[in-house]
Amino acid sequence: MSFDRYEARREASKLQEPVDEARLLAEKLGLSPYPVNYWIVDYDEMNELIAYGGFQHRYPHWRWGMQYDRQQKQGQYGGGKAFEIVNNDNPSHAFLQESNDLADQKAVITHVEAHADFFANNEWFGLFTDARGDDAVDAAAMLERHGRSIREYMSDPDVDRAAVERWIDNVLTLEDTIDQHQPFSASHLVGDGPADGEERDDDLAEKLSELDLSDEVLEEVFDEEWLDAQEGDGETASFPETPEKDVIAFLREHGKQYDAEAGKATEFEPWQRDILEMLRAESYYFAAQKMTKVMNEGWAAYWESMMMGEEAFAGADEFLSYADHQARVLGSPGLNPYKLGKELWEYVENTTNRREVFDKLLRVEGISWRNVADTVDFDAVLEQLEPPTALDSITSDSLDAVAELPDEYVDRNALDRAREREIDVDRYPWKVLTYEGLARRHYSLTKRQNRGFLKRVSQSELERIGRYLFDDAIYDSVEEALADVDHAAGWDRMRGIRESHNDVTFLDEFLTQEFVDENEYFTYEYSQAAGQNRVASTDYEDVKKKLLLQFTNFGKPTIVVQDGNYNNRNELLLAHRYNGVMLDIEQAKRTLERVFDLWGRPVNLLTIVKTVDEHDIEVAKRRNREPDPDEQGLLIRYDGASFEERDIPWEEVEDIAASDIDYDTKPDDWLA
């Protein structure tokens, strides 16, 4: 994108100050984002960028046109509006739609700065970056290079363009079958299979029948006893030793293409193997974004709200427009990662701050976890935790009062500049404060919506805090104890979590019963007995399990390579790690057709299916309970021409079945 249009140049000049000031404010708040380049684009360009996943140059493929059309229709008929898109790169690139009003642009800029901080500091994003040995992600260059290489293959007169397009379709079918918990490695070799060019023997009896050998030779040299010794009761040469999660890498190393004319598997063409590896690299690059959707969007929504609302980065004449913007984002129906993420980050902040307060209160002489609720006046505690008036309300007329604040709260150099009118403190009051001053100014427990949070502490939580306090009588009064409270504890803890967690670990650790009750989350599922959806549970463990199923492995079925020489016939065996949610069998078959093209030989899929007898459903309806489904192993085989399905005894599929999750509904239907 460029600034060659007059409107774009004018918009860019108008936004230079908000961009500069948002970066300074983000850093004051403790964020450390990648540098960000901002670009002004029009409506069509924004839709194109969204379709391309945030980048300008990608390989040719029909999926981009489909996504562009969907995005355009959403804007025209669905009431959705694209405010921004930012990519994980160093420097990051953010695209602002020129038709947005100034309040929207400011909201986008603050949102982007928080995303850039998350990109730069979350370890799951580092799995791709660090593995490359270069702090500069340079994803845009990588994706452009891939696009250029694939275009060259498509224009090569010796390569059929349609074959390239079909090959891309095949690989994209498996784009999420990678080991997202491991660093990306371009030289990833898997299994202990044959070296390139070496083929495992297929069924020997079948091979011998194809040879033009006399009966005498067959009887003398290849008798039944010899065949049995070779392929009957001996150990099969299975690989890999343990199930391989990176299916794409396995196929790249051991796959072949099927030659219809020769009727057998042949080696990949160089372009096929090259495209496999390029698309695999892109899957690893985008994996971190899929693994941290709730955390990342919630993080950006939290800091955007802090900057735009609480630090009044949105001017008085822009605030209503901004409030409408945020309400639309947070109020989107369904499982909303912005809303869920923001609420979880606020819960982390509040619980950390609450624990810090009680850590101090339980050290006061005469106060213990057993009597604190009856001994301490929590209204008085909140009053003392309120920020000083001079810190809470900063104007050009109150700078003398600001000067009286403790040094840890005030940036003395900036204060001097404000007094000299070099800083517009009425517009940017945060400039005269330090990180500690801003944490005190925005202390979460004293905000109106959180004022009851301190009192709602459970007895079990108090016991956990107090049980390991060995120096439990170091303060003579509550006032003395509260003077030692670290008001930045919540923000510090949030940054630590931001570094190490992904959505699964984030939800698993911080989604509690208290959070579920306060935010009114629940699960619902389709009732076989009632024939309709119903609320299933408000228990946090149930809510958590259903959420975790949505975010584990990007919410997709987990498929692993179980055996690359299944039944010693050079067939591929994939296994579905069943978690109580069945595969769509017809869709699984369509996927096996694609996998056959990447393996060149018959492919198999092992899974578990559930069936419910109609009689059991009728009995369950009369008794107002859910019928118990029967679970059965299923093997689907595809040989390039037809499918074969075979029931498998339960003892042979127990190792692919989850032990603690058994829901009857599909993930898309779960959460309200």
TrEMBL record:
Region (Disordered): 183-202
Protein name per UniProt: Stage V sporulation protein R
Signal sequence coordinates: none
Coiled-coil regions listed in the entry: none
Short name of any one Pfam family annotated for the protein: SpoVR_C
SpoVR-like C-terminal domain residues: 557-608
Naturally occurring in which organism (per UniProt): Natronoarchaeum philippinense
InterPro entries: Spore_V_R, SpoVR-like_C, SpoVR_N
Domain of life from the UniProt record: Archaea
Domain spans labelled SpoVR protein-like N-terminal: 12-355, 488-555
